[in-house]
C-alpha cells in the first residue's frame, strides 16, 4: 500500500484492508508508513495501529526521522519497520528483511530512497544489487519499495533490477500512476502505488493551505484533509519457485462516509 497519511489513512487501512485480504486471498501485506503520524513521520502508536490491521511489514522514506519517538521503537522492532537501506552506516534500524506466511513461504523486502531532488544518500543503484543478492539466499521472491520524487529514477530502478526481483514499486509522490506492468525479465513494476488518505486534498493536506504556499511563497503549516479517503496500492501475484511476477493489479478502495 502507498504512503499512509495520518489518521484518515490509518482508518482506511484498518477498515478496508481486512476485506481486501479476504476478497483477494492476500498472503502478505506491506505498507509505507512514513506519513502515518500527523501526515509526516511515524510514531509507535501509528506503527502499531497499522500492524494490528493485518499489515505484516512497514516501509518508509525521507520522513522516517521526523518523529524522534520512533527511533527507540524501531531498534526494538527492526523487522517490523524498515528505513531506506541507502542511509549511511550507523543509521538506526535496517533497510531490508524477510517476512513469511504462516506456512513458511518467504518474501524479501528492500526499502530504498532516491536522490534526484532529495538527499545525497548512498547510491541506491549500487546498494541494491548487493542487498538483493543477500535476500536471494533466502528467497527468490523480493519486493522493492523505491521511495523517490523522480519518475525517471523509479523507472530506471525497475529496469536495473528487472529479472533480479519480483517487484519494484514506487512510493513518495502520493499520486497513483496507471503504468503497472510486468517488465521483460518478469519483474512487476509501477511508478507510484499512490496514497492511503484523503484525495480531496493536495497530496493529503488541506488544499487551501497548499495553494496559499504557492501564491505567497511563505511557509504555511500544513493540516490534514479529511474528505474522500481512499486506500490505494497494488496486489502482486508471484511465483514462489522462480520469484517472477505473474500479475500486478492496482487497488483503489473508497472509505465509506468520507
TrEMBL record:
Annotated protein name in UniProt: TIGR00282 family metallophosphoesterase
NCBIfam families referenced in this protein's UniProt entry, alphabetically: TIGR00282 family metallophosphoesterase (TIGR00282)
Entry-linked CDD domains: MPP_DR1281
Annotated Pfam families: YmdB (PF13277)
Cited InterPro entries: Metallo-depent_PP-like, YmdB-like
Amino acid at each position: 500500500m502507498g504512503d499512509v497519511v495520518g489518521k484518515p489513512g490509518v482508518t482506511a487501512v484498518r477498515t478496508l484492508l481486512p476485506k481486501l485480504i479476504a476478497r483477494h486471498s492476500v498472503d502478505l501485506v506491506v505498507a509505507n508508513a512514513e506519513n502515518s503520524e500527523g501526515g509526516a513521520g511515524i510514531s509507535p502508536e501509528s506503527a502499531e495501529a497499522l500492524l494490528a490491521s493485518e499489515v505484516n511489514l512497514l516501509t518508509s522514506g525521507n520522513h522516517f526521522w521526523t518523529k524522534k519517538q520512533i527511533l527507540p521503537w524501531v531498534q526494538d522492532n527492526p523487522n517490523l519497520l524498515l528505513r531506506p537501506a541507502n542511509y549511511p552506516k550507523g543509521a538506526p534500524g535496517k533497510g531490508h528483511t524477510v517476512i513469511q506466511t504462516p506456512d513458511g513461504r518467504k518474501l524479501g523486502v528492500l526499502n530504498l530512497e532516491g536522490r534526484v531532488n532529495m538527499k545525497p544518500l548512498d547510491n541506491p543503484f549500487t546498494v541494491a544489487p548487493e542487498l538483493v543478492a543477500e535476500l536471494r539466499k533466502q528467497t527468490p521472491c523480493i519486493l522493492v519499495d523505491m521511495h523517490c520524487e523522480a519518475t525517471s529514477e523509479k523507472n530506471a530502478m525497475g529496469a536495473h533490477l528487472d529479472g533480479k526481483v519480483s517487484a519494484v514499486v514506487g512510493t513518495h509522490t502520493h499520486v497513483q500512476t496507471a503504468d503497472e506492468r510486468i517488465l521483460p525479465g518478469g519483474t512487476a513494476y509501477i511508478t507510484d502505488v499512490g496514497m492511503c488518505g484523503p484525495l480531496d486534498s493536495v497530496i493529503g493536506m488541506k488544499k487551501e493551505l497548499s495553494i496559499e504556499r504557492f501564491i505567497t511563497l511563505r511557509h504555511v503549516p500544513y493540516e490534514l484533509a479529511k474528505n474522500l479517503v481512499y486506500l490505494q496500492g497494488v496486489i502482486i501475484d508471484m511465483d514462489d519457485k522462480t520469484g517472477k511476477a505473474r500479475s500486478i493489479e492496482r487497488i483503489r478502495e473508497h472509505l465509506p462516509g468520507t
